[in-house]
Design goal:
The protein is mainly α. The chain contains 11 helices and no strands. The model has no long low-confidence stretch (mean pLDDT 77).
Length: 261
Amino acid sequence: MWTQLAEFLQANGRETLIISVVGTLLVWMYKQFKGMIDREQQEKLATVQLKQTLFTKLELNLASVLHLGDEESKRRLLELLGECGPYLTRMQRTLVRDYCKSFDPGVLHTLQELTIYEADKLDRQMEKLGETKDSGEWFIYIQRLYAPVWPIITFALVGVYIFGLFLFVGQGATSWIQINILISGISILLSVSLVVAGGPLVAKNKMGKQGAKRWGVFALILLSPSLILIELEMSLVSIAIQVTALVFLWFNKRPPGIIRL
C-alpha cells in the first residue's frame, strides 16, 4: 500500500501539491477555530462568575441600605454600583440614574427585585455549565474536538457556493445578465445566511421578543429571493428589499421584554 501511495505521489505532482496545500490550510483553520472557541468558552464562564459575584454583593448592599440607611452603607452601594456598571442591564442602569438624581429608597426596592431576578438567571446559567462539567471529561473533550469542524464546513460551503456562482456568472450571454445572476446569488446567500444563523436561535428560544413588525421583516428578507423565480431581472428588487429590511432592523429597536419578578 505504501509503495502504491509513493508511486501515486511521484506521478501526480500537481495533485500532491494541491492536497498538501489544502491539508495544511484545513489544519491551520482547525487550530484557529478551536483556539477561538476555547477562548470564547473560558471568557463566557469567567464573565458569568464575575457577574454572579458582583450581583450577589449588590443584592446584599441594597438590603443593607434599605434596612440601615446610614451614610456608610450608601457610600459602599455607590462604589459597588460603579463597579457593576459594565454588567448592568439597561433597566438597571436607568434605575441607578433615577436613584442618583433623587436618592429615593423606593427606587432601590425596584432595583433590588430586578437584581435578584438577574442573579437568579446567572445561577441557572452556572447550573447548566455545571451539568456540562458533570457529564464527564471525555464528553467535554469530544465536544471541544469536534466544535471547530462546523465553522470549517460552513466556510468550505460558502467558498464552493461563491466559486460556483462566479462560474455561473461567466456563462451569462450579456453583461446585464451576468450582473443579475451575481445579484441573485448574493440575495440567495443572504436568505440562507439568515436561516443558518437564526434557525438555531429560534429553536433554542434565544431570539427574545421581536414584535410583529420585526418578524415580518425577517420573513421579507427570507422570502424575497423567490421573486427571482418569476424573472431574473427581479433580482434587483429582491436585493433592494433585503437591504431596506436590514436598515430597518438596524435602526428599529426591539420591543421591551416583560420581566416577571
